[in-house]
Amino acid sequence: MNYFVNAHHYAATALFLSLILAGNIPVGFHRKRFARFSRPWARCIYIPILANIVLRRFLGLGYSIIPFTIMVVLAGQLIGARIRKGDTNNQYGERGSISG
Fold first, then answer.
1. Closest of 70, 83, 89 to residue 28, by C-alpha
2. 18 and 28 in contact (C-beta within 8 Å)?
C-alpha cells in the first residue's frame, strides 16, 4: 500500500507541474503585450500564482513542491514571452498595452 501512495504522489506532482507549465506559456505570451510593471502586466504574473496555490491544495501536495512550482512558473512565462507569432509592433498604448 505504501508503494501506491508514493506512486500517486509522484503522478500528482508530475501532473501538477505539467499543468502549471502548460498554463503559463499562454499567459507569458499574453503578458509581453503590456508595459512592464503596469497593472495588466502584474495580473498576468499574480493570477497564475494564485491558481497554482489553489491547484496545489486541491491535489494535496505539500509545501516542499513550492520551489519547483516557482521554477516551472518562471519557465512557462519565459517560454511564452519568447514566442514570436507575427509580432512586429512593439509600441505601447496609453494603458500599457501594445496598440494595434
1. 83
2. no
